[in-house]
Write a structure and sequence with these properties.
- It is a single chain.
- By secondary structure, the chain is of the alpha+beta class.
- Strands 1-6-7-8-5-4-3-2 form an 8-stranded mixed beta sheet, with helices on both faces.
- The two termini are 25 Å apart.
Length: 210
C-alpha cells in the first residue's frame, strides 16, 4: 500500500467530518469480529500475517483477524507505524481486514485497520498524520478539526493500464482509530467498503465524491 500511495496521480476529492460520525463509537474486538462475519468475511485466527496474507490469500469474500495481545501490537507495528513515521507505542486491541478480487488480480483491494491505543495521544497522532497524508495528494490545506476525513480519487493511475479509483477514510473515536483503503477499477464498484461502513457505522468514503 505504501508503494502504491507514492505513485498516485489523479483527481482527489477530500471531505472532512466536522462533527461526530453519526452515532459511531469505538468498537471492541468482539464487535468488529461480529461485524466482519455479518458481511461474509472469514475469520483466519491469530496466524494471519498482516502483509503476506493480504496478497497471497484468496480473499474474495474478505478475511480478517482481531487481537488484544502481541498480535495486536504486530498489526500496528507492521501496518500502521510505517506510514508517516508514526512512533513506537503500546496498543490494547487491533484488527485487520483484507479483500482481494482474485489470487492473481490485485486491481481490487480493500484494507481496513483498527487500532485501540493505550494512550489517546497516539490515536491523535495517527489520525492527524493520515489526514496530512490525504491532503498531500493535491497540496491542499484544510482545517483538521473533526473526527474523520474521507478521500475519493478518480484516475488513480498506478502500475496498471486500468482506470483505478481510490476510496479511503480515517476515523477517530477516543483511543481508537479506523483506517480504510480501497483501490478498484473505476467501472467496478467496491461493495465491501459500503458494507463495512454500514456495519461499523462509519461515513462511507463515497460521500467525498459528492
Amino acid at each position: 500500500m505504501n508503494g502504491i500511495r507514492r505513485l498516485a496521480a489523479g483527481t482527489l476529492i477530500v471531505a472532512i467530518g466536522i462533527a461526530s460520525v453519526g452515532c459511531a463509537k469505538a468498537k471492541s474486538k468482539d464487535d468488529i469480529a461480529h461485524a466482519y462475519t455479518d458481511i461474509g468475511a472469514q475469520w483466519v485466527g491469530n496466524t494471519m500475517d498482516p502483509y503476506e496474507d493480504g496478497r497471497n490469500f484468496r480473499a474474495e469474500d474478505g478475511i480478517f483477524t482481531v487481537a488484544d495481545d502481541e498480535k495486536a501490537q504486530d498489526i500496528y507495528d507492521e501496518l500502521a507505524k510505517g506510514y508517516n513515521g508514526l512512533r513506537d507505542c503500546e496498543v490494547e486491541e487491533a484488527s485487520y481486514y483484507v479483500e482481494t478480487s482474485t489470487y492473481d488480480d490485485l486491481q481490487l483491494n480493500t484494507y481496513v485497520i483498527t487500532v485501540t491505543f493505550k494512550d489517546k495521544e497516539d490515536a491523535d497522532l495517527m489520525f492527524e498524520e493520515n489526514c496530512n497524508e490525504f491532503e498531500q495528494f493535491n497540496n491542499k490545506k484544510s482545517n483538521l478539526f473533526g473526527k474523520y476525513m474521507l478521500v475519493y480519487q478518480d484516475d488513480f493511475n498506478v502500475i496498471s493500464d486500468c482506470d483505478l479509483t481510490r476510496e479511503s477514510g480515517i476515523y477517530q473515536f477516543g483511543n481508537q482509530v479506523v483506517y480504510i483503503y480501497s483501490l478498484h477499477p473505476t467501472d467496478r464498484d467496491d461493495k465491501a467498503v459500503g458494507g463495512i461502513c454500514e456495519v461499523l457505522n462509519l461515513a462511507d468514503p463515497i460521500k467525498a465524491k459528492d
